[in-house]
Design brief:
There is one protein chain. The chain starts with a helix and ends in a 22-residue tail after the last helix. Helix 4 links the parallel strand 4 and strand 5. The chain folds into 2 domains: 63 residues, no CATH class; 119 residues, Glutaredoxin. It has a 5-stranded mixed sheet with strand order 5-4-3-6-7. Strands 1-2 form a two-stranded antiparallel sheet. The protein is α/β, with parallel strands linked by helices. The chain is built from 6 helices and 7 strands, in the order αββαβαβαβαββα. The longest helix has 27 residues.
Length: 232
């Protein structure tokens, strides 16, 4: 075998061992170029990358759903400074809500379910936050209308969050239950996560208390948007 041809053959073998393929040039010499990866390998790599991105995104959504809002700074007795009227003959339930908080749809749903069981055993207010200088009707969203459609519920507008400030509510969905003497017997939320409907400790506790029973739980986490923000 001629020496030149032998050299090219050896060079080709070396490039093949390195995962490359030879590329002939005009001068007759061989220069190695990277071998193309199989199409299935590229598709598999893209799929793995996509799965990683989706997994990270779902993890962040799950973490957000499980993150409660700030707890209320509630006093142990009905605030004297409030404009709200406490029922002196039966418990009073207060629910503070942001009208544009999607998380609070679940809270309103849980409230509706609660009142099917204990409607005549309490006076119920849902107080919707409204920022100053908001357009007329800003607070009257589908959430407002859903709450207003629940029998036995009184809807109030909370201009600039003044009522929420008096009661110490900070998160949409914050619920307080005061007994007929004005003592705070429950503070918390009625959902187990943001926007999650279903059985939860908050609603179970309220049901027990309003049915004349006792509960070892007097406080739960609140999952919702911050009150006092113009938009969410």
């Amino acid at each position: 075998m001629p020496r030149a041809e032998s050299g090219r053959t050896l060079g080709t073998l070396a490039w093949l061992r390195a995962g490359l393929r030879p590329s002939p040039l005009t001068d007759g010499s061989d220069v190695g170029t990277p071998a193309k990866r199989p199409r299935w390998l590229l598709l598999a790599s893209a799929f793995v990358l996509w799965m990683v991105v989706v997994g990270v995104g779902l993890g962040q959504l799950w973490a957000y759903a499980q993150t409660p809002g700030p707890a209320a700074r509630a006093s142990a007795a009905w605030p004297a400074a409030t404009r709200l009227v406490r029922d002196a003959h039966r418990p009073t339930l207060l629910v503070f809500a942001h009208p544009q908080c999607p998380c609070s749809r679940a809270t309103i749903g849980e409230l509706a379910l609660l009142l099917t069981q204990v409607r005549d055993r309490m006076t119920t207010y849902v107080i919707f936050y409204r920022p100053l200088n908001a357009e007329p009707g800003w607070e009257q969203t589908d959430l407002w209308r859903s709450a207003a459609a629940i029998p036995g519920v009184q809807i109030l507008r909370d201009d600039d969050g003044a009522d929420a400030a008096v009661f110490g509510a900070a998160t949409s969905g914050q619920t307080f239950l005061y007994d007929a003497e004005g003592k705070l017997i429950f503070s918390g939320g009625m959902t187990s996560a943001r926007g999650h409907s279903g059985d939860n400790v908050g609603r179970s506790t309220l049901t027990a208390l309003l049915n004349g029973g006792r509960s070892a739980t007097t406080q739960t986490s609140v999952f919702g948007c911050l009150l006092g923000t113009p938009t969410e």
